[in-house]
Automatic annotation (TrEMBL):
A Pfam family the protein falls into: Biotin_lipoyl
Span of domain Lipoyl-binding: 5-80
Gene Ontology terms, MF aspect: transferase activity
The keyword tRNA processing belongs to this UniProt entry's keyword annotation: no
Annotated protein name in UniProt: Acetoin dehydrogenase dihydrolipoyllysine-residue acetyltransferase subunit
Species this chain originates from: Acetobacter syzygii
PANTHER family attached to this UniProt entry: HYDROLASE ALPHA/BETA FOLD FAMILY, PEROXISOMAL MEMBRANE PROTEIN LPX1
């Protein structure tokens, strides 16, 4: 009978969206709905969106009330065939809510505190920690132009019985805007120094894009610090890179010019929200931010190509390693993961762009969970 019931859940309108508020229902229980019909208005930060029904059917229940704020994935209502009994609907809703609440409770237990500033040598780094326990910690390294919020859908989920650490690389987010020569090896040395400062002798390392190249340089210079390696759409494995993205990210200074550049990051272009665009514009206006990005781009992508070939570092690693890539990546090519030893699993996610950790968070978290056990 459950195949005749379709849950309507809080959608994810943007990469940074974690919750939304039902401002109004546009249809009443008992109404026949077409797929794609706007059935509710949902308010996120600074904007209200019309929510289109994911399927056709009869709206049997409105579970969420107007004015209620709920996390992404929470049950808003239920579509069901008229033949489905009220008792079956009640049972479906009760089970959905129970399963969802259990997941939310697990997440709540690992909610991270506010980021802190950590002094590492002459640098100040913004650091986010979550979780606790005796298992080997996990550290996340974001990519060019990113920050620790790139891991907002991963860090809590992977914390559990271990500490997880995300941080802003120098030149990014809330960290010092001094980047030295801007090379991955320099960032790797900073990452190692941060681990020492936090008392981490070894960690599972997850790197995204340029952060993947940094993770490989960390492995090269400090192999004893790397317990496992998960590379997401990683730089350092090929030569080609979309310089329209790199140059556009640096030069665009208005929403009209930056938004199409950010579209390169995702398969689903609707995930690039106004808030995300405005946050990046504000970041680039900080003293030293643009100069830092330009230094990194010049060092890492001279002549419009990736400077470093780090595949030998990966192929010589004897520990657990995997590569996760979006099949529709428009920044770095998934073909860069070809020709690796069979011991290195390559996971390709369909209908996914350059940021699988946000577009397909559940799949990425499952893959990382598997390798760090």
């Amino acid at each position: 009978m459950t195949d005749l019931i379709t849950p309507i859940t809080m959608p994810k309108f943007g990469l940074a969206m974690t919750e939304g508020k039902i401002t109004s229902w546009n249809v009443s229980p008992g109404a026949q709905i077409d797929a794609g019909q706007e059935i509710a208005d949902i308010e996120t930060t600074k904007i209200t969106n019309g929510y289109e029904s994911p399927a056709a059917g009869t709206l049997r229940r409105q579970v969420a009330t107007e004015g209620e704020t709920l996390p992404v994935g929470a049950l808003l209502g239920v579509l069901a065939d008229p033949t489905v009994s009220d008792a079956d609907l009640d049972a479906f809703i009760e089970k959905f809510q129970s399963d969802f609440s259990s997941g939310s409770a697990d997440t709540a237990q690992t909610d991270h505190a506010e980021p802190t500033l950590v002094t590492v040598g002459e640098l100040t780094l913004r650091v986010q920690e979550a979780g606790q326990g005796e298992e080997t910690p996990l550290i996340f390294i974001h990519g060019f132009g990113g920050d620790l919020s790139n891991w907002m859908l991963n860090q809590n989920d992977l914390a559990g019985s271990r500490k997880t650490i995300a941080f802003d690389l120098p030149g990014h987010g809330g960290s010092t805007k001094t980047v030295g020569d801007g090379k991955p090896a320099t960032f790797a040395a900073t990452t190692a120094a941060l681990m020492d400062k936090l008392g981490l002798a070894q960690a599972h390392v997850v790197g995204h894009s340029l952060g993947g190249a940094i993770a490989l340089e960390l492995l090269k210079a400090f192999p004893q610090k790397v317990a496992s390696l998960s590379l997401i759409a990683s730089a350092g494995l090929g030569r080609a890179i979309n310089m329209d993205f790199i140059d556009g990210f640096i030069s665009a200074d208005r929403r009209k010019t930056l938004e199409p550049v950010l579209h390169y990051l995702v398969h689903d272009k609707t995930l690039i929200s106004r808030r995300m665009v405005e946050d990046i514009i504000r970041f680039k206006r900080l003293d030293g931010a643009l100069q830092s990005l330009q230094t990194i781009a010049t060092s890492c992508f001279p002549d419009g190509k990736q400077a470093d070939d780090l595949k030998p570092v990966l192929t010589s690693f004897s520990g657990p390693a995997q590569i996760i890539w979006g099949a529709d990546d428009e920044v770095l090519s998934p073909t860069d993961a070809k020709g690796l030893p069979d011991s290195i699993e390559v996971i390709t996610l369909e209908q996914t762009g350059h940021m699988p950790q946000l577009e397909k968070a559940a799949e990425v978290n499952a893959a990382i969970s598997k390798i760090i056990k």
